Every structure is written in C-alpha cells, then in structure tokens.
Amino acid sequence: MIRKHVCPTCESEYELTSAHVPVRDKDSISCQICGTEIISWNGSRIWDAKLLKRGEPPSP
After folding, report:
1. What is the pLDDT of residues 31-41, one digit of tens each?
2. Using CA atoms, how far apart are residues 2 and 8, in angstroms rounded to an integer?
C-alpha cells in the first residue's frame, strides 16, 4: 500500500509505504523536519516514509 501524507506541523510531504510481515511490530515514524509523529503501528503491517517535499520547521 502506498499513500501520501502531509505533516500537520511543518507541512512536509511524505510517501508512506507499507508491507505485511509475519510477526507483530510496534513502532512509529516521526517527521524528519520537525519531529512530529506522522504514523505509528502495532500489528503485522509495517511502514516506511520517504520525504518528498521539505516543509518549514515551526519557529521556536
């Protein structure tokens, strides 16, 4: 499965891909720009994220 995702904090754009694995996995992926969690899982589907477009990090 492939889907697009936009970080709600910095608006970076990602392509998320998933794959089924034979065992359960619990993990998450955070935005490379601002650190906001963009996806988490706890099951037999694992995810990978590819940064497509860099957004603007939030001001401190």
Report:
1. 999 999 999 99
2. 19
In eight-state DSSP terms, residue 57 is P
pTM above 0.85, yes or no: yes
What is the share, in percent, of the chain residues with pLDDT greater than 70? 100
What b/e string do you get for 30-54 counting C-beta neighbours within 10 Å, with b at 16 or more? ebebbeeebbeeeeeebbebeeeee
Cα(33)–Cα(57) distance, rounded to whole angstroms? 6
35: which residues sit within 8 A by CB, 6+ positions away? none
Structure-token pair, residue 17: 């891909």
Token duo for residue 11? 């608006």
| Cα–Cα distance, 15 to 23 (Å, whole number) | 24
